[in-house]
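User: Just a sanity check before I run the rest of the batch. Below are the structure tokens for the first item. I only need the designed sequence back.
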């Protein structure tokens, strides 16, 4: 169900080696459950132990809209721990 995403998922960052397949699945499920977050997840930037920035939606074309928010692992489960911001793509660089 969640693996049918057409956009390849990019995950990186200084702590990305600690990101498990289960963590990615939890993040995708958090997004799947929320109608206020654009789909799909396209980037996870693991910049802290047990915490990452997540970007969802689209960022390929002028006018695309994306969301960004932070998830943090608390008691073994990932939770959204920041405001969900929205941005529209206004410049595309080659």
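Assistant: Here's the designed sequence for the first item:
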């Amino acid at each position: 169900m969640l693996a049918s995403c057409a956009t390849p998922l990019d995950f990186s960052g200084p702590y990305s080696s600690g990101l498990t397949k289960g963590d990615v699945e939890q993040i995708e499920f958090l997004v799947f459950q929320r109608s206020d977050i654009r789909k799909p997840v396209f980037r996870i930037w693991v910049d802290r132990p047990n915490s990452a920035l997540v970007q969802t939606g689209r960022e390929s074309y002028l006018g695309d809209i994306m969301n960004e928010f932070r998830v943090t692992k608390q008691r073994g489960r990932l939770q959204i721990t920041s405001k969900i911001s929205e941005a529209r793509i206004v410049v595309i660089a080659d």
